Amino acid sequence: MTLAVEKLMTSYxxxxxxxxxxxxxxxxxxxxxQDVKPTNDELEVIGVFNPGAVQSGDEVILLLRVAEMARxxxxxxxxxxxxxxxSEEIKVLHFPKESPDINxxxxxxxxxxxxxxxxxLSHLRVARSKGGIHFQVDDKPTFPPQGRYxxxxxxxPRITALPDGRFVISYTAVSGFGICVGLAETRDFKEFHRIxxxxxxxxxxxxxxxxxxxxxxxxxxxxxxSHIGSSEIWLAFSNDLKHWGEHSHLLGIRPGSWDxxxxxxxxxxxxxxEGWLAIYHGAKEQDNTYxxxxxxxxxxxxxxxxxxxxxxxxxxxxxxxxxGFFSNVVFACGVVPTSDGKLRxxxxxxxxxxAVAEITIDEVMDSLV
Length: 369
Ligand code: BMA
Fold this sequence. Notes:
It is a single chain. The chain has helices at residues 319-322, 361-367; strands at residues 23-24, 43-56, 59-70, 77-83, 90-96, 102-103, 109-112, 115-118, 121-129, 136-137, 153-161, 167-175, 178-186, 192-199, 203-208, 217-223, 233-238, 245-251, 262-265, 270-272, 275-283, 290-297, 305-308, 330-337, 342-349, 353-360. It is an all-beta fold. The strands form seven sheets. Strands 19, 20, 21, 22 and 23 form a five-stranded antiparallel sheet that branches. Strands 1-26-25-24 form a four-stranded antiparallel sheet. A four-stranded antiparallel sheet has the order 2-3-9-10, with no helix packed on it. A hairpin with a 3-residue loop joins strand 25 and strand 26. The chain binds beta-D-mannopyranose. Beta-D-mannopyranose is lined by residues 50, 155-156, 290, 326, 329, 331, 348, 351.
């Protein structure tokens, strides 16, 4: 296994002269659309990206977001897959392509008569690997959308390993009601129990901390501001993972910076002696590019931000990050700490493929201001 593409290194020199080297695996992308079997013949896999990741025994488990598009068989219509909440079967809706009432300007959505649909339907699928590089992807959807809040799909899972052996999955649940946050738990990645929709629309990018702090479970979440305010990272607290409250604002956008338009949690935070280290994403309004940075939170009082990346740790530089279904995106939902002080970042590139890169925790710490 080698992770070595120094020429794609992202460097950031802070006043102290510290460099964060990002080493992308030379065989990236590690999972591509052709590596995944579609749910049925009517669908085509167009993205396998934004995976949650966890080390479980001697395996790395990824929970992949698999996005499928309906086969576009007729030239004058756009076919959009959705799940029927009663039968739980996938059905395909058709919209007239030439209609003045249709807007197809964003490849991720189809807006018809003022109503927004997603062009692709996503489900979650497990992939396993001993070394963390070569993955065996399940043949079928592991966690398909279910119920009336998931009719447009389930997306962007984060996996949190709790000390009692449970894994908590936080994911985006999309339907005509809006973008909600769902939580589920599993012990084996075969049977899942849905805890429920824990945050109403519009909210996404939830990452649950790996242990209770001062007796509470904690999550980072991201309400999408549509009137006053911006789309920024908040914290919420819970005693049982089901009921969340004590919401407090954690981290804001920074005008003029790489995280000027909106930000959201990436992977669940990692405990370090200096604090909770969390990778988060930021988007820039001018060009809709997605970057990754880091934030350090106080171990005992995670509402306190200790330091943050001034410059991104990762930006779209490799060809598979710069060109894809939605270009210029690096988006991480899962990191796995290694025994030699690194973070292995599993990330979605250009909303199309899954890639892996490594950074050294000490270098990240030194780059935070
Ligand atoms: C965000 C999320 C991600 C996606 C990114 C870029 O809002 O929805 O799923 O990777 O946009 O399209």
